[in-house]
Fold:
Amino acid sequence: MMLNVSVPRASARVLSLAIRGSGSYFSNIANYPLSSNPTPRNIVGSSPLLSSLRPSLRSIHNPLLISTLSRGMSSKTTSKTMKEMVTDYSSKPQTPVSLQTLMETGRGERIGKGGTTDATIAASDSEGTATELVLMQVASFLKHELPIRLAHRIKDLDNVPMMSEMNSVLQVRDWYEKSMTELIEFPAITSKEDEEKFAKLLEGIYERHAGVLVTMARGAFELRAAIREGKYGRGGKADFEEMEGMHKFLDNFYMSRIGIRMLIGQYLSLRQPPMDGYVGMICQKTSPGKVVQQAVDDASFMCNRKYGDAPEVIVHGASDLTFSYVPTHIHYIMLELLKNSMRATVEHHGVDEDYPPIKVIIADGEKNEDVVIKISDEGGGIKRSHVSRIWSYLFTTADPAVQEGMVAFENVDHSIDSPLAGLGYGLPISRAYAKFWGGDLSVMSMEGYGTDVFLHLSRLGASKEPLP
Ligand SMILES: Nc1ncnc2c1ncn2[C@@H]1O[C@H](COP(=O)(O)OP(=O)(O)OP(=O)(O)O)[C@@H](O)[C@H]1O
Ligand SMILES: [Mg+2]
Structure:
């Protein structure tokens, strides 16, 4: 496949985007100069860990109709209907990335590796220029890749039975269409100024899509209610949780969203002043021990706010271990798991009782493929009849009023400001984060006693994102 990317004359030598061959990330990125830094300052907080954590907390979780869109369109895009554009772009292959490729690109190691180009350019240019080139490479790659990914999702949203008719789902679809059109209409990135404008566009898109997680949850909530009311001829049976196809669709949708936000977040982070040990959002020395401690503090804060007390958490194991990973992703998962364990512990033993501590064990070995984290609680476990449902979206044993409240508001995000439990999204989304970089999440429960959760994180960084 040959990709057309225009670059300024000076950088054309370096970028030499003669992307040859397949639609692999390397061929695509080499041709699109790609790169790396933590999350955008305007979206992030101030302390290094928090600044890298907060964004994904908000973000992970977050995106008009043709008539509205076509108003600002160039003649190029108006000549095609929105439907044609979606069909066109969704027929193109998506390019998966891995942690390793994102790091290499972010460090400028993919510049000049497109095939024809001289690999010496990155070295011969000044440091500043190399960074510019990296940013232009990433921006050009994103200009190519993001409309394709968005179009794939629009097509999925159109094809999912019943769900596609929900108002909230139509709203999400509009956000996707708007963002896809803006990206397609953006001119080729041929100068530093273009790259700066592109970054502004992506900041806007990142913000627009901030509410997607909750808005889609509202869509699922609307569908579940419609099914319960018998609108889809299911005799009012509340069987949303058992609709396998629907859950597969949601798994794919949210997984894809993680990928899109990772790519945009990585690029916007690369534009920020570099942080020690970071390549964009990726920390080359991620310490699971430190991230776990941060998650313990946040979960304890949330548990204290709800019950006035929180169980102690004892962390054992490889506390000095570091590996390349996205700390915000580990924090997200650990916070969800600890919130679940704390809630179960307090509710099983009763407020004001002495709680058995929650144990977190971090296991690692030089030769291990994975970093494994086990979270064990004595919170009474999960009923066997609930075990198969815990991965269903919207399944929760918390007060249903909490879920209703969460889907009723426009600006809910998934931060420490949200309730300790209640949306019924914690486990399925955490598993999507784990799987995104090649890991997994599993739950073993002993009813009447407690629950063990195993989080596997791939430490090799070579696993490519699973692209639905
Ligand atoms: N450690 C645990 N011990 C006992 N039950 C658990 C545990 N973890 C999860 N569960 C059960 O699984 C259900 C689903 O968990 P999940 O985290 O997906 O949603 P939630 O905690 O109810 O809401 P939220 O979206 O806020 O996380 C919980 O409501 C609870 O019934
Ligand atoms: Mg939860």
About this structure: The chain has a mean pLDDT of 81. Residues 9-267 form a domain with the Butyryl-CoA Dehydrogenase, subunit A; domain 3 fold (CATH 1.20.140.20). The radius of gyration is 23 Å.
